[in-house]
Specification:
By secondary structure, the chain is of the alpha/beta class. The chain is built from three helices and seven strands; from the N terminus they run ββαβββββαα. The protein has a seven-stranded mixed sheet with strand order 2-1-7-3-6-5-4. The protein is elongated and about 50 Å long. The N terminus is likely disordered.
């Protein structure tokens, strides 16, 4: 189990964003392993990542703007391609135009890096199945769309 050491004062959780703010640190100030997590999640299309200290969840939720995939203590928020509401992260440019990728990464102070990388592997498997459903699921979805 590899627990990370942060470059800032001891907190119960640490929040990183691209440019930092009054309440977050810049990802450039994060430990190397956290920067690696940021990059891997960015490449997968995740916009927000949370790693909880204690609570575990195992579910997938779909809302107006995000699909949330909860794997153990890790939660991955992926913007939906077609949203009913515009989504902005501080910038005036709506998310999805030239404003893509990771925006917020929040980790518990006791984060187990091996655990997080395992959860990222599980996320990749889930995304592969969601984005490329088998022929039976595609057929069921097609039939549902006929009656929607």
């Amino acid at each position: 189990m590899q627990v990370i050491q942060h470059n800032i004062k001891r907190l119960s959780k640490y929040t990183y964003t691209q440019d930092g703010s009054k309440t977050t640190s810049t990802i450039e100030d994060a430990p190397q392993v956290v920067q690696r997590i940021w990059k891997e999640l960015h490449d997968l299309g995740v916009a927000i990542f949370r790693h909880r200290k204690d609570k575990k969840r195992w579910e997938i939720d779909t809302g107006d703007t995000f699909t949330a995939i909860h794997v153990g203590k890790s939660s991955f928020y992926i913007p939906n391609e077609k949203t009913t509401k515009p989504l902005h992260f501080v910038r005036k440019t709506p998310y999805g135009k030239d404003n893509k990728g990771m925006k917020v990464l929040e980790v518990a102070s006791n984060m187990d890096c091996d655990d997080v990388f395992h959860h990222i592997d599980l996320l990749e498997d889930i995304l592969r199945k969601i984005r490329r459903p088998n022929i039976f699921i595609r057929f069921i979805n097609f039939v549902k769309s006929l009656f929607a």
